[in-house]
Specification:
Elements lengths: L4 E8 L3 E8 L7 E6 L2 H17 L4 E8 L2 H13 L1 H4 L4 E4 L15 E2 L2 H32 L17 H6 L2 H4 L7 H13 L9 H24 L14 H11 L8 H7 L12 H17 L1 H12 L5 H22 L12
Parallel strand pairs: 1-4, 4-5
Antiparallel strand pairs: 1-2, 2-3, 5-6
Helix pairs in contact: 1-2, 4-8, 4-9, 8-9, 9-11, 10-13, 11-12, 11-13, 12-13
């Protein structure tokens, strides 16, 4: 019995995605379809692929992701992996920026395991928890300020000019200096938080503290889960980064060969001042979290970070964004050359 292999080429565009169907022995597609770049369109595209597999009596299915933004690519992969019918064909999924769909051999080193999609879900859920924790801390700081007996006529301090990742991962005492209220007010807030949090039950501070504790515990569980999954998504960024961050960064970056230079990653994450810069929130979150880790545990990064705050008088938010460029240069080189990072006695460039 002849084994018919169906190769499906998916190219993600702006607002829509194009699907081309190839069979062995033909250089031109036997069918082309277009679908909207949203959940409904993804569902329709997967349904069309399923129909083609049944109609052609396909016994082998190959799916090639030719191009597109990382977030859209991951979403369509999720729909493909969730379809029980397609799972029966044991499809091979490849990801490559500029590959002919009928020449699959050119992109075998880009093969993606379905298990990676499960890791991706955990990774994205962790990013959402980071945002929730930052919001809970911002609310707590606001309530601390309002609970003070001051002559400020109820005026609120300006919003913390920090990334959510900084707010989530810093302690409350580390956040208070970056409020715009006067020093005596900050000192009172710090004293309340350090010595008598239980006295503020009526204002809801105690409840919010419990919520913060719960969110921090959930993030720790996600960190442990991602660390255990590091065998599925291997990353040479370990031990330069802890496993949960290395896995998150590697997943969000995806196929490193899609980028010509490290600056492309910064633009995609929205971490540069550029009209063409995009804002991939999960990629940005993991880059900022990883940069914060490097500032805390690698002397060279810490020196650059503190230098920008003290000598250049940058805000912590701006300084972190600037140092993130250094982190991306290191990560880009490591993932591109497939070499491990030597954390001792090494200049990170």
């Amino acid at each position: 019995m002849r084994v018919e292999c169906l190769t499906v080429s998916i190219a993600m565009g702006k607002g829509y995605f194009e699907v081309e169907y190839f069979i062995e022995g033909r250089a031109q597609p036997i069918k082309c379809t277009n679908h909207q770049n949203n959940n409904r369109g993804f569902s329709e595209g997967v349904q069309e692929i399923r129909k083609m597999c049944t109609f052609r009596s396909v016994t082998q299915l190959v799916i090639v992701m030719k191009e597109g933004e990382a977030d859209a690519v991951y979403r369509i992969k999720h729909f493909l992996a969730s379809d029980k019918t397609l799972k029966g064909y044991s499809p091979r999924i490849y990801s490559s920026p500029d590959v002919d769909a009928h020449n699959v051999s050119d992109c075998k080193h880009h093969e993606v395991d379905f298990l990676q999609l499960d890791v991706q879900k955990v990774s994205h859920y962790r990013c959402n928890l980071i945002k929730d924790l930052a919001n809970a801390k911002r609310e707590l700081v606001k309530d601390l300020y309002l609970s003070l007996d001051t002559d400020n006529e109820g005026s609120l301090p300006s919003e913390l000019e920090l990334y959510d990742e900084q707010v989530a991962l810093w302690s409350i005492p580390d956040l208070l200096p970056w409020l715009s209220c006067n020093s005596s007010c900050k000192d009172k807030m710090l004293k309340i938080f350090q010595e008598h949090p239980e006295l503020s039950v009526d204002s809801g501070l105690y409840t919010k503290n419990q919520r913060i504790d719960a969110l921090e515990t959930m993030i720790q569980v996600m960190d442990q889960t991602l660390s255990k999954m590091s065998g599925i998504v291997r990353s040479n960024l370990v031990p330069f980064l802890p496993p949960h961050l290395a896995v998150g960064v590697s997943l969000e970056i995806g196929d490193i060969y899609r980028y010509r230079k490290s600056a492309d990653l910064l633009k995609l994450a929205g971490l540069v001042y550029d009209d063409a810069a995009r804002d991939q929130v999960n990629l940005q979150s993991y880059i900022l979290q990883s940069t914060l880790y490097c500032v805390s545990y690698h002397d060279e990064f810490r020196k650059v970070y503190l230098g920008k705050i003290q000598a250049s008088r940058m805000s912590p938010k701006t300084a972190l964004r600037m140092v993130s460029r250094k982190f991306i240069r290191v990560a880009f080189k490591v993932l591109l050359t497939n070499e491990n990072v030597k954390t001792k006695g090494t200049s990170f460039g």
